Amino acid sequence: MKTLALSTASRSLAEYANELTDEVVLLTKPNRPIAAIVPLRNVDRETLALSTHPGFLARIERSRREVAAGKTLSLEQMRAALATQGKAPEATRSTRP
Predict the structure, then answer these.
(1) Contact 26, 33 (CB under 8 A)
(2) Contact 5, 31 (CB under 8 A)
(3) Are residue 51 and residue 28 in the same domain, yes or no?
(4) Is residue 36 included in any domain, yes or no?
(5) Domains in the chain: how many in total?
(6) Residue 90's pLDDT is what?
(7) Is 37 exposed, middle or buried (0-12, 13-18, 19+ CB in 10 A)?
(8) Judgement on whether residues 37 and 58 belong to the same structural domain of the protein
(9) pLDDT tens digits along 20-77
(10) What is the pLDDT of residues 4-26, one digit of tens each?
(11) Can you say whether residue 90 is alpha, beta or left, with left for phi > 0 and alpha for psi between -120 and 50 degrees?
């Protein structure tokens, strides 16, 4: 990761972005991170939007706490739980008069 103090940046941010390969450029003002220029190879807009959405990030953090506390089921446990419930009832068609 490269660090770039905004006070010493001699070129436009676009020029720095054009030089990106796989490395992140961390922008600082004064010595405090304020932004980053990140290469977005193989990233769609939806993924990018979710990666910064506060609600989504809160859900991920909650899930990580549940995993750490052992409050999750393995795939095998989930399959066994679903198998004991039997088949779900088939959806009924709605008929309109």
Answers:
(1) yes
(2) yes
(3) no
(4) yes
(5) 2
(6) 54
(7) middle
(8) no
(9) 888 888 999 988 999 888 888 778 889 888 888 999 999 999 999 998 998 888 889 8
(10) 888 888 888 888 888 888 888 89
(11) beta
The DSSP line for 54-87 is HHHHHHHHHHHHHHHTT----HHHHHHHHHHH-P
- Token pair for residue 6? 């905004």
**CATH number, residue 35:** 3.40.1620
Distance separating alpha carbons of residues 1 and 32, to the nearest angstrom: 15
Please give the pLDDT value at position 88: 53
Token pair belonging to 62: 């909650």
Residue in the block written with tokens 């409050």: 71
Question: Which residues make Cβ contacts (< 8 Å) with residue 2, sequence separation at least 6?
Answer: 23, 24, 25, 26
The structure's pTM equals 0.47
91: confidence class by pLDDT, cuts 50, 70, 90: very low
